[in-house]
Design a protein that fits this description.
22-stranded antiparallel barrel; globular; disordered N terminus
């Protein structure tokens, strides 16, 4: 752990070198900063009924609906936290401000920008799983028009399943503002992950769920460690060439290099915990994507009305590799026994498959706002999609599609504090990859046409407390296993539901963010599909409710208590719906104390996650299981310089 000491020394030196506060990481608080309950994260805190992997029963990240400051971004790996100020999930009314709607929702990342004054923040955090980390972020002016932002992070992470890793990340960003009409910001980040053990997945041999594995206990081979490098870089630029004209450009590159990778699978698990262990070793694999958007916007003021027209060109060039794994049958074992098989002296990998996606979208959108009356918006895009898949020993497989994509939305203010809204969107989205227990493990699935209808209301109960409630319906193709265990399209899925968000300060001391979704998800099988296919999709809960409270005490200045309650309904675990994972309630409690030391703002934070220790299995894919996070304690200390 010597590198940890050196990074800590660098962090302190950087902080002492800058006299003024600029980053303010000590003020991160998801409850007080979230605009709604649909999904929000800042720093080390997150809340909401949705996230990047699940919104209305689908994954907006897998669908390709990620944005950086509203501009199109196709990530090959998770966006680095050192560059992100916050992340919001946009659905329904909250997504109407985006010129080109996405049926599965939008993951919008707000980029962390260099501050106008020199300053820095240091955050030290840890948890009862053994995590220990230090993070430094800061800004430094380099002149009247130029500023620098930097970030450093070194972490030893302990995971709920008993695995751990060591990782470090670095980031840098420059912001050049030669005039009020020009804003240019290049940025770059690198993430290195070492000794990241492959946590186990479980497959039952019976028509029952497998036994729950021991808490925080990794019993697999300790040499099966991931080693990966991820890089993210790009340029954000905004130019106002004339009055009421804005030109925005975002160009991004994201890459993921898996230098060593494994998949740890326990199959044929009996009720007594006996099983067979398979280990899949992956060859070095690369994923990379260059993406971005050029958008020209023109505003036309018209008294009480404002018209905005957008012309947009979105594009991506994504390349990926998959396959070539070598399987090791480590023989009979138990979910309660440690695996001590020695590391193979050498590996013999198979040939690698490759895929390339080229996609361009040229679109025109309009947004009109009439003060105290309502809003109207629509968008029309022409997509050009090409996917080329090169399997070993076969001719290239080329898939083409050139669909028209469109959306329309409207909001009407029916009273001073009440607005009604409705919308429809048709999109071209990705389907993610095949699950790890499929014969075509990790293979990219085809792009699909999707559609969404939604409607609802927004009610400003008070000037600060807002209720958003709505109905929605989404339709997509549905994927499952064929008789050869290949993961492919087997039907279609229709998710219909009701969602709500209630957020804002209830009093001067009490903040609330609460939301929920009740989902009626149904599957219709294709005529040629083989096997039993249940009526409900795998891994989609029938309901989810989330309530978050933050209370600032009147007795001690700077002391606040918080709690959150999440209730998730049961969800099918297998394609045939023969097994389901029961519902679960997760209660978290915490406290934070904000104070000053030598004129510097400091926040100490502690939280108990899963207070009632609701421990069990969660879905890792069709017929595949992992354990959830048991009770744990985590905390951090943040100081702004």
């Amino acid at each position: 752990m010597r590198p940890f000491v050196s990074v800590a020394a660098i962090a302190v030196a950087l902080c002492l070198a800058v006299p003024a506060r600029a980053q303010d990481r000590s003020t991160d608080n998801a409850v007080t900063q979230a605009e709604d309950a649909f999904g929000y994260s800042v720093g080390r805190e997150a809340l909401g009924i949705y996230n990047g992997g699940n919104a209305r029963g689908f994954s907006p990240s897998a669908a390709g609906n990620v944005r950086i400051d509203g501009l199109y971004f196709d990530p090959a790996f998770d966006f680095p936290g050192l560059l992100a100020d916050s992340t919001s999930i946009k659905v329904g009314l909250s997504a109407q401000g985006y010129p080109f709607a996405a049926p599965s929702g939008i993951v919008d990342i707000a980029l962390r920008r260099p501050a106008g004054k020199a300053g820095a923040s240091v955050v030290v955090n840890g948890d009862s799983f053994g995590t220990a980390a230090i993070e430094v972020t800061g800004s430094a002016p380099l002149g009247q028009d130029l500023a620098l932002a930097y970030g450093l992070n070194l972490t030893r992470t302990g995971f709920p399943d008993g695995t751990d890793n060591i990782n470090h990340a670095e980031s840098i960003a420059l912001r050049w503002r030669p005039s009020s009409a020009v804003d240019i910001m290049p940025f770059y980040s690198r993430y290195d992950d070492y000794n990241d053990e492959a946590g186990p997945f479980y497959i039952s041999a019976t028509n029952d769920l497998p036994p729950v594995p021991p808490k925080h206990s990794y019993l697999g081979p300790h040499w099966a460690d991931f080693r990966l490098v991820a890089e993210t870089g790009g340029l954000l630029a905004s130019v106002a060439p004339a009055k009421n004209w804005v030109v925005r450009l975002g160009v991004f590159h994201s890459s993921f290099e898996q230098r060593e990778g494994y998949f740890n699978l326990l199959t044929d698990i009996q009720s007594d915990g006996s099983a067979n262990r398979l280990l899949f070793a992956d060859p070095p694999l690369h994923q990379r994507s260059t993406s971005g958007e050029l958008r020209v916007s023109h505003s036309i003021p018209d008294g009480e009305r404002l018209h905005v027209v957008h012309l947009s060109l979105r594009s991506r060039d994504a390349r990926g590799e998959f396959g070539g794994s070598q399987e090791f049958d480590l023989g009979p074992t138990s979910i309660y026994e440690e695996e001590d098989a020695p590391r193979p002296a050498s590996f013999t990998f198979g040939p690698i498959s490759r895929e390339r996606v080229r996609q361009d979208l040229l679109g025109l959108a309009y947004s009109g706002r009439w003060r105290n009356v309502g809003e109207l918006g629509f968008g029309l895009s022409k997509a050009r999609y090409r996917k080329t898949t090169q399997l070993p020993g076969e001719a290239p497989i080329v898939a083409r599609d050139d669909p028209w994509l469109y959306n329309v939305n409207a909001a009407l203010q029916v009273a001073k504090s009440v607005s009604l809204y409705a919308g429809y969107a048709r999109g071209l989205e990705e389907s993610g990859t095949a699950p790890p227990n499929a014969a075509n493990r990790n293979a990219p699935l085809p792009a699909i046409l999707t559609s969404q209808k939604d409607a609802g209301l927004r009610w400003a109960i008070t000037p600060k407390v807002k209720l958003v409630a709505g109905l929605f319906e989404l339709s997509k193709p549905y994927f499952g296993f064929d008789p050869d265990q290949v993961f492919r399209q087997v039907g279609s899925i229709r998710n219909r539901g009701v969602e709500f968000s209630l957020s804002g300060p209830l009093t001067d001391r009490l903040d609330l963010v609460a939301g929920g979704v009740v989902l009626d998800a149904r599957v219709e099988r294709d005529a040629g599909a083989v096997g039993t296919i249940g009526r409900r999709p795998v891994g989609v809960a029938e309901h989810l409710f989330n309530v978050n409270l933050n209370w600032r005490t009147p007795w001690v200045k700077g002391l606040a208590f918080d709690t959150s309650l999440t209730r998730r309904g049961k969800m099918p675990a297998t394609i045939d719906n023969s097994l389901s994972i029961t519902g679960r309630e997760i209660v978290n409690v915490g406290a934070r104390y904000s104070f000053r030391i030598a004129g510097k703002d400091v926040t100490a934070r502690i939280q108990v996650y899963n207070l009632l220790d609701q421990y069990g299995l969660v879905s890792g894919g069709p017929g595949l299981y992992r354990n959830n996070q048991p009770r744990s304690v985590n905390g951090f200390l943040a100081m702004d310089f």
